[in-house]
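Appendix B. Raw example, untouched.
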Amino acid sequence: LMLFKDAQNKIHSGEIIDLWIKRLEAVDKICSTSKSGWALDYWHSVRLKLSRQLNLLCAQVQDR
């Protein structure tokens, strides 16, 4: 598992965006199969964090 700050320093920007999109897709699949309220809350918070990080990555790519 790669942390956001590590990924920013070690991976090319296009590759990291693809990686974060794959993570979002995986979380979406989990959300669609979650049946309990706490699981949905947890995975929704994970998705929000990943979405914010993806927005930051996209902004960084545009600035370059």
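End of appendix B.
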